[in-house]
């Protein structure tokens, strides 16, 4: 399972979803609607026609930009109201970090006094969902009719570090996604500050390409929008990397609801069916997932219960590992700890000499200005984990077909060598001694999570069978702070009874936050983490901020293990 | 060998949650202060109280020095030894006592900005600690016959600290006059440093036998006289030019800045020369002087930056007139138009480039992972140099990318966050 866009959307505060059923939406409020928009927006047929053509011919999927959209004076008032009257709280999951309005669930639910403080906001909403504008938008986007009854808006503030990772927005009856920017009206937003809406082409439907092909930076009074297309409309919001507030109103236009003009019986159900199809994760689509995580099968003769961890094993492992973790006393202590907690962390895992060499090499690589950015810059033996609505990072799963290990560059050679260590019979014996699990098959890759690019979205472990998972943190840089810069590896429990988004771990109740997170592994140097992953555990590596001091580097391994009774034989 | 089979992270957490007693107050106290290990020199008699004091001082020297705890310990121990002593104490004792008092003064100063609370444990002010340090170093000099170079170095630092403290505490309107009044004390501090140098030569030692902290007066002096420039500028701006002859002291601070800049440069240069000589003679096999040499290179770099400062300021003033990025409403129109803002003649521009290039050459040799701040100092100099080249020229781009590399290094060593600056430079 991967986190999907549902999480985000379900947690957005909704200004007006289905809010205006009792309000006038169709005819009587139309007087003055045109005045809420920029001059001649709705009446300039030539501009309207040109916009239609530009949307029709746009790629990677149909999208458009209108600027300016709203009467400048009105939008300035809206901005002032929002900043003065609304309170934002920061929320964070595997897929986003954003400040949302917490005290405004529903504009129509407010009393008159509160509403009077947000009069301009109400006027803006009325204009956006007016018949005139819906017809205008439906025409230029050729999207089909849009509902005036089902309104769906939220207010988001992205400040430094905020981002929203790749998703396709396909949920229920959404027809057009939009975002109206309320950045500082008197100071132009600069593209380098981040916060752009980035659109991704698809390899095949439901599989976004690794790189975006269109980037639309925010601008005061600009409406960016696209038609929601199942399996196609993949996009993300680039991290805001400067200390500048990117305020926006975003939302959706939905397909007409029952009783509305343009309503088609069964249309919504059909869209929902199409959007849920991809959840089935067909085998064909999984072919596009990388890395493949091929498991190596082990010869179990020497590693199951009863086989000794000998001095020969110690001698071999000491070439890499700190000998202090290989003594009988250390193993007994680790084993007891692991038996109690099902997790352990070992600092100073590699021996000092090997650690120094490794740090020098990885540090040099990390500092190099030639960090690959676009997928085309990623060269063998490194590969790119994708598709980006599930993950993006660089990985190394061994020498490629054309090179032997010896011919790899130094850093890659070292990482592959360490990966091979995790498969070695002596290492598996040590693993058995501390865990009581006999690894039967294993998979290991080295990963690099680059600042401003990489992450994994949460995956759950749904099987009843336990697995051993290890991560050796090999991040040479310091200054990662307390998690603000991301890059941490996090495990959390899914509470089946909780209806909230399971991956919300910051912004929920404090007690819940603390309870659900079972394990975090901050980017660090030479720390080995081992867990027993059982059913109901979500795990992900948080998006690494552009402001991070370097990449997160690690080696991650997974072992399938022999069932308990087999071990005891 | 294995004990019990783990249940799985999720299951183990759920079971624990049920077992954990609700009263968490019984747990071990958090944030317990770690004990300090007192490093004793090899073969030191543990009953030798002076040796123990020296050990404690070495522990402080090697610590991060971000807490006054060890310093209070040192002062307390020195007090006790002094009270119980029946014989004259050695110069090293007095020096440790004086340095501890002087370093403690910094904590008194930085603990709180509120003047009323500016006090140590017994209500002493920052100046009280400095005065006590001066007194202690002076007594040490009187009582000792050996190694008094150390004490003079400390005395010089303490007197400069007092000058700095007095300037900081004087009201801004009378700070210029205070600076003029205080000049004799400044000269005294410089003279103490020179006396230390004499003793140093007589004892056959060199600068390399001292730490950069001990020689810190050179850097402190530069900082003080650097402030004189600003004072002079303010004073000139406020004075009536017609009445300038009334103020005979006018310009005196500026000329002092020049004088002491050269004075400091001589010291840094001498350290570097000594270092070159000692390399040949293999006098420093342990490389203990490495940090002093790094420091001297940094000092030389800063000397050349100081020489370039008036030219760079002129350039900045010109640029500010045209480009006010944060406040201008129509910044886009102005932004690319800063060619005209360069208010330097071709000769001045070349001179600025030469000076900053020299600074950069020295600063490169000051870079160290042990002191990540050096990377930011070098980056800053590289950016200054880059700004002297044509906008978007190859030279400018090359220098910016060298600066970016260093900002990244500093950042990854945990020293500051420079992402916005990096993005600007890479733009």
Return the CATH class of the domain at 43-108 and 124-163 in chain B: Mainly Alpha
Instruction: Count the beta strands of chain A.
Output: 26
The helix content of chain B, as a percent range, equals: 55-70%
Percentage of residues assigned to helices of chain A: 25-40%
CATH third-tier fold name of the domain at 43-108 and 124-163 in chain B: Serine Threonine Protein Phosphatase 5, Tetratricopeptide repeat
Shape of chain B, please? globular
Kindly give the count of domains of chain A: 2
Assigned CATH class of the largest domain in chain A: Mainly Beta
Q: CATH superfamily name of the largest domain in chain A? A: q2cbj1_9rhob like domain
Summing up helix and strand content along with how strands pair, one would put the structural category of chain B as mainly alpha
CATH architecture of the largest domain in chain A: Sandwich
Mean pLDDT of chain B: 80
Tell me, what's the shape of chain A? Answer: elongated
Uncertain residue ranges of chain A: 1-30
Main sheet of chain A, how many strands, which sense, barrel? 11 strands, antiparallel
CATH third-tier fold name of the largest domain in chain A: Jelly Rolls
Structure description:
The complex is a heterodimer of chains A (569) and B (427). In chain A, the strands form 4 sheets. In chain A, strands 1, 2, 3, 4, 5, 6, 7, 10, 11, 12 and 13 form an 11-stranded antiparallel sheet that branches. Residues 1-30 of chain A have low confidence and may be disordered. With 569 residues, chain A is of the alpha+beta class. Chain A folds into 2 domains: 5-285, Jelly Rolls (Sandwich); 290-568, Double-stranded beta-helix (4-Layer Sandwich), CATH 3.60.130.20. Chain A is 27% helix and 24% strand. Chain A contains 16 helices and 26 strands. Among the domains of chain B are: 43-108 and 124-163, Serine Threonine Protein Phosphatase 5, Tetratricopeptide repeat, CATH 1.25.40; 367-426. Chain B has helices at residues 9-19, 49-62, 69-84, 91-111, 126-143, 148-169, 175-202, 217-238, 252-281, 290-322, 331-335, 346-364, 373-386, 394-412, 419-426. The interface between A and B is large, with 51 and 34 residues.
């Amino acid at each position: 399972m991967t986190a999907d866009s549902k999480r985000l959307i379900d947690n957005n505060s909704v200004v007006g979803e289905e809010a205006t059923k009792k309000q006038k939406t169709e005819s009587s409020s139309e007087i003055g609607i045109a005045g809420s928009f920029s001059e001649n927006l709705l009446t300039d047929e030539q501009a309207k026609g040109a916009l239609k053509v530009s949307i029709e011919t746009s790629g990677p999927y149909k999208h458009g930009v209108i600027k300016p959209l709203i009467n400048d004076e009105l939008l300035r008032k809206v901005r002032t109201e929002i900043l003065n009257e609304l309170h934002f709280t920061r929320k964070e999951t595997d897929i986003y970090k954003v400040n949302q309005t917490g005290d405004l669930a529903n504009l129509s639910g407010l009393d008159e006094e509160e509403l009077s403080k947000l009069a301009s906001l109400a006027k803006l909403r009325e204009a956006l969902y007016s018949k005139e504008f819906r017809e205008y938008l439906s025409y230029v986007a050729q999207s089909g009719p849009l509902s005036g009854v089902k309104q769906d808006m939220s207010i988001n503030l992205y400040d430094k570090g905020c981002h929203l990772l790749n998703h396709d927005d396909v949920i229920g009856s959404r027809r057009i996604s939009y975002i109206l920017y309320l950045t500082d009206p008197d100071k132009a937003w600069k593209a380098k500050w981040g916060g752009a809406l980035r659109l991704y082409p698809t390899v095949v439907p439901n599989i976004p390409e690794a790189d975006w092909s269109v980037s639309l930076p925010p601008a005061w009074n600009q409406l960016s929008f696209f038609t929601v297309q199942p399996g196609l409309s993949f996009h993300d919001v680039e991290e805001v990397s400067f200390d500048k507030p990117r305020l926006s109103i975003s939302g959706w236009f939905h397909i007409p609801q029952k009783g509305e003009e343009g309503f088609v019986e069964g249309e919504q159900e059909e869209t929902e069916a199409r959007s849920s199809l991809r959840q089935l994760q067909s085998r064909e689509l999984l072919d596009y997932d990388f890395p493949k995580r091929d498991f190596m099968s082990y010869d179990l003769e020497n590693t199951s219960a009863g086989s000794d961890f000998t001095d020969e094993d110690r001698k071999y492992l000491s070439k890499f590992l700190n000998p202090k973790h290989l003594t009988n006393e250390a193993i007994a202590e680790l084993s007891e700890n692991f038996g109690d907690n099902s997790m352990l962390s070992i600092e100073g895992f590699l021996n000092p000499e090997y650690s120094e060499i490794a740090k020098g090499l990885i540090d040099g690589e990390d500092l190099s200005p030639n960090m690959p950015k676009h997928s085309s810059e990623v060269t063998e033996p490194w590969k790119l984990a994708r598709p980006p609505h599930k993950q993006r990072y660089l990985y190394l799963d061994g020498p490629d077909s054309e090179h032997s290990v010896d011919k790899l560059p130094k850093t890659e050679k070292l990482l592959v060598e360490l990966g091979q260590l995790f498969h070695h019979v002596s290492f598996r014996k040590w693993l058995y001694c501390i865990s009581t699990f006999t690894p039967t098959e294993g998979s290991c890759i080295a990963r690099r999570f680059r600042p401003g690019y990489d992450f994994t979205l949460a995956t759950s472990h749904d099987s009843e069978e336990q697995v051993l998972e290890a991560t050796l943190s090999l991040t040479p840089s310091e200054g990662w702070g307390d998690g603000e810069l991301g890059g941490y590896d996090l495990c959390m429990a899914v509470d089946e009874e909780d209806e909230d988004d399971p991956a919300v771990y910051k912004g929920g109740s404090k007690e819940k936050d603390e309870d659900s997170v079972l394990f975090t592994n901050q980017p660090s140097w030479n720390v080995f983490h081992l867990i027993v992953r059982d059913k109901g555990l979500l795990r992900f590596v948080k998006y690494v901020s552009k402001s991070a001091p370097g990449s997160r580097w690690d080696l991650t391994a997974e072992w399938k293990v022999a069932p308990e009774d087999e071990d005891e034989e | 060998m294995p004990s019990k089979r783990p249940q799985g992270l999720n299951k183990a957490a759920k079971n624990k949650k049920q077992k954990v007693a609700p009263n968490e107050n019984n747990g071990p106290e958090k944030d317990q202060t770690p004990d300090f290990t007192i490093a004793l020199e090899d073969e030191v008699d543990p009953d030798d109280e002076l040796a123990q004091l020296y050990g404690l001082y070495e522990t402080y020297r090697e610590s991060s020095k971000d807490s006054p705890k060890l310093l209070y310990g040192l002062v307390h121990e020195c007090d006790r030894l002094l009270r119980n002593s029946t014989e004259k104490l050695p110069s090293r004792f007095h020096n440790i006592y004086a340095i501890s008092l002087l370093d403690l003064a910094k904590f008194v100063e930085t603990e709180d900005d509120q003047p009323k609370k500016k006090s140590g444990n017994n209500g002493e002010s920052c100046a009280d600690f400095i005065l006590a340090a001066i007194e202690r170093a002076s007594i040490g000099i009187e009582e000792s016959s050996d190694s008094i170079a150390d004490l003079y170095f400390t005395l010089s630092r303490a007197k400069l600290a007092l000058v700095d403290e007095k300037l900081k505490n004087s009201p801004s309107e009378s700070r210029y006059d205070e600076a003029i009044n205080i000049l004799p004390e400044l000269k005294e501090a410089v003279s103490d440093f020179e006396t230390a140098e004499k003793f140093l030569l007589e004892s056959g030692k060199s600068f390399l036998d001292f730490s950069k902290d001990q020689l810190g007066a050179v850097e402190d002096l530069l900082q003080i006289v650097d402030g004189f420039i600003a004072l002079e500028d303010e004073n000139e701006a406020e004075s009536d030019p017609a009445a300038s002859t009334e103020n005979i002291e006018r310009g005196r601070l500026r000329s002092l800045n020049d004088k002491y800049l050269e004075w400091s440069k001589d010291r840094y240069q001498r350290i570097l020369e000594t270092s070159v000589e000692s390399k040949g003679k293999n006098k420093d096999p342990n490389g203990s002087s490495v940090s002093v040499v790094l420091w001297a290179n940094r000092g030389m770099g800063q000397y050349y930056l100081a020489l370039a400062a008036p030219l760079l300021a002129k350039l900045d003033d010109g640029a500010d007139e045209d480009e006010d990025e944060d406040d201008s409403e129509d910044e886009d129109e102005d932004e690319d138009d800063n060619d005209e803002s360069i208010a330097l003649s071709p000769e001045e521009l070349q001179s600025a480039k030469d000076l900053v290039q020299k600074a950069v050459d020295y600063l490169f040799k000051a870079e160290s992972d042990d002191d990540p701040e050096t990377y930011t100092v070098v980056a800053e100099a590289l950016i200054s140099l880059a700004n002297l080249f044509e906008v978007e020229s190859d030279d400018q781009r090359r220098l910016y990318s060298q600066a970016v590399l260093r900002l990244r290094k500093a950042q990854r060593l945990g020293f500051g966050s420079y992402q916005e600056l990096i993005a600007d430079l890479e733009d």
